[in-house]
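Duplicate of earlier report; Alpha/beta hydrolase input re-posted below.
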Amino acid sequence: MTIFSRNRPAGAAGTASTAAALALTALAALAGTAAPASASGPAPTPAAAALGAAPGDLTAPSASAAPSASSASSASSASSAELALPRPTGPYATGRDTLFLTDHGRTDPWVPAAGARQLLVSLHYPARPGSGGATAPYMPQEEARLMLAQRGLDDPEWPGLVAATRTHSRNDARPAPGRFPLVLLSPGFGTPRATLTGLAEELASRGYVVATADHPYESTGTELPDGRVLTCAACDEVDAQPDDAARREVLAAVSTGRAADFSFLLDRLTGPRPAWRHAGSIDAHRVGMAGHSIGGAAAASTMAVDRRVDAGVNLDGTFFDPVPARGLDRRPFLMLGTDPGHAPGAGDTSWDEGWDRLDGFKRWLTVRDSGHFTFTDTPAIGEQLGIVDPDAPLSAARSTTITRAYVTAFFDRSLRGRPARLLEGPTPAHPEVLFQRP
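Output:
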């Protein structure tokens, strides 16, 4: 995969363009185990090889050379400008809270010495207009630094730039009146929860409470409230495996472990003594789950063990933990992925198998010109940095519009019983979206 910077003279293919290439690698891979394939840079780790061999999970664009730190900050004219997520389109203002939860009934599966399993959760919710304090931050700077450093980008300006990406939700905002369906979100393997913020804000603006979880030791960095930063022990576990089959077993354990995380989170959000101060805003009888990459696979894993989740969405993730042979009790499921990477028979046979086993309302959609991270905040951030990936030429605007439109339509249909003509077949409004009917 080759990456080029926008508005760069043809002869400027030296350090600036390679810095831009690695910048997109940092922002588009965001995956602690995937290293860029480079003639002069480091070779991919075993985990990168495993994930590259498993279509739909973490794959990284390549960089032609490693940049110097001084050239990285000059790779884009955006280096001195504020980055911003696309504005949500729904009728509600949005608020954000953060929860730090401890599951005393379960030891952390990746670092048992750490003790009980813990979760950091962002809650986006419909809010009263004009209420709340400052706009919620995108992500901690140390998380951004680790995310970028894993890709070889060590310029000191970049972490602050990415961390300061402007969001549209306010801290301490008062909830809008009413009770709203709950959507759980899970990020890709090695990827911070912040990278699903744009989708979370959009759903909240459309009248959903959205809980996005960081799964400790499964991200390049998770900063806890006490300032400690947990790195990706699960990535190390994948790397340590002797072959692809063993690596896939570990990744299946990631998926099933996230199912346990979300069952615990549901208990804490909808149980008799909820952990969230605005839990009264949640309609516990209408719950959906979506995720990117292995987070999308975890949506099916969670539905397989927790009947409370009524509908699921997999955004371009391999089902390392297969959809159960018995199906998902006729609950609806959407598979939305890259084309041709996740088209029928294209290589990720877990989608073909999963499709056959899904026994409720289901849709298999693929998106032309998309990449693995099309369904996250990556296109919006990368494009503002002036960086493009010709192997995934779908624009940030189209990436955002398509992801928002189809995920929202699916949850509106599944959790609210609303008509969803968008899911009935191809539409001129979204010519990139293909309906697969294997």
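The chain is about 30% helix and 20% strand.

Merging into the original ticket.
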